[in-house]
Amino acid sequence: MAEADITVQVCHALPDSTFLRSLSVPVGTTIEQAVAQSGLLQAIPGIDLSINMVGIYGKKKPLDTVLHEHDRVEVYRCLQADPKEARRRRAACKPAKG
């Protein structure tokens, strides 16, 4: 008896567009396999799974995480600026209170 497939989504958000694809994959498929099957790496060549973080519904996960029915795999963009450094710059520009 063959195992049933599960439905998952793979998504990646860019500043001006979004990649979102639903897939039917075999039970036991990992995040890395689903991303490869989705066509994301061909559609957006700059993505490198050894650098870009991935997750499921906003929680970071390793590439070998096994997917479950209705999981949404998210491939995150690299940060353009360090959030702590950006906050320091904003604070330096504000006038002192007092």
β-sheet strand percentage: 25-35%
For the largest beta sheet, what order do the strands appear in spatially?
2-1-5-3-4
* Oligomeric state: single chain
Give the name of the CATH architecture: Roll
**What is the count of helical runs?**
3
Helix content: 10-25%
Number of domains: 1
The name of the CATH topology is Ubiquitin-like (UB roll)
> Roughly what is the average pLDDT, rounded to an integer?
88
User: What is the general shape?
Assistant: elongated
Order of helices and strands: EEHHEEEH
Query: Can you summarize the main beta sheet?
Result: 5 strands, mixed
Q: What would you give as the CATH superfamily?
A: Beta-grasp domain
Stretches where pLDDT is under 50 for at least 5 consecutive residues are none
The total beta strand count reads 5
The class by helix and strand makeup works out as alpha+beta
User: What's the N-to-C terminus distance?
Assistant: 75 Å
Radius of gyration: 18 Å
CATH class: Alpha Beta
Account of the 3D structure:
The protein is of the alpha+beta class and 98 residues long. 23% of the residues lie in helices and 29% in strands. Strand 1 and strand 2 (18-26) form a beta hairpin. It has a single domain, classed as Ubiquitin-like (UB roll) (Roll). It has 3 helices and 5 strands.
